Amino acid sequence: YHRLHSKETRLSEFNQTERKAMLGSYTKVLFVRDPFHRLIATFLQGMGISPSFSSFVQEVLDSGMHNGSAAWKPLVSLCRPCLMQYDYVVMFGFLRQELGHLLRRAGLPAGSLLPELTDSQVQWTYRWLSEQMFSELSAQQKRQLSHFYRWDLAAFPFSSSFLSD
């Protein structure tokens, strides 16, 4: 495919036959994370210029789907799970377990290649952070965020997400 070497070509620009031919021999892995956790991480990393989490969330909501940063855009708009069939979907919070499985499937020694991951501590920390940050938001912001990320919440099993409530 002559467009394959162009950096501007997006996967969605190829027709289904071309995509299938290009990606057929690859193992496709998608790493997903609760959208609310992504917002918290982005805010904590200082990617927003807002002084408070609530005002940062308002910036995200005001920027909308098309003008937003990839750091907080809905995953379905970035990874296109309807256009591409992923072989594995790895959820943040279960990395050690799922990466070990992937490495074994690839015929690699899982134990020696994995960094020390403490998934349960990460989950507990994000649960606590989520409670704190969620309490800062207005009822309207909570509704708007749930609507903004509705397709992510429908596509991936984020059942314990604060945005699912």
Keywords:
single chain, mainly alpha, two-stranded parallel sheet, 165 residues
In short:
The chain is mainly α. The chain is 52% helix and 5% strand. Helix 3 packs parallel to helix 8.
* Proportion of residues in β-strands: under 5%
Number of strands: 2
Structural class: mainly alpha
**Helix amount:** 40-55%
Distance between the termini: 45 Å
Shape: globular
The helix-strand sequence is HEHHHEHHHHH
Q: Helical element count?
A: 9
Largest sheet report: 2 strands, parallel
Number of domains: 1
Mean pLDDT: 81
Alpha-carbon Rg, integer: 18 Å
What is the strand arrangement across the widest sheet? 1-2
Q: Which blocks of ≥5 consecutive residues have pLDDT under 50?
A: none
Question: Could you describe the 3D structure shown?
Answer:
It is a single-pass type II membrane protein. It comes from Loxia leucoptera (White-winged crossbill). This protein has 165 residues and is mainly alpha-helical. It has one domain (11-155). Helix content is 52%, strand content 5%. The chain has 9 helices and 2 strands; from the N terminus they run αβαααβααααα. The protein has helices at 16-23, 35-44, 53-67, 75-79, 95-105, 110-113, 119-135, 139-148, 150-155; strands at 29-32, 88-91. It has a two-stranded parallel ribbon with strand order 1-2. α3 (53-67) packs parallel to α8. The longest helix has 17 residues, at 119-135. The radius of gyration is 18 Å and the shape is globular. The termini are far apart. The mean pLDDT is 81.
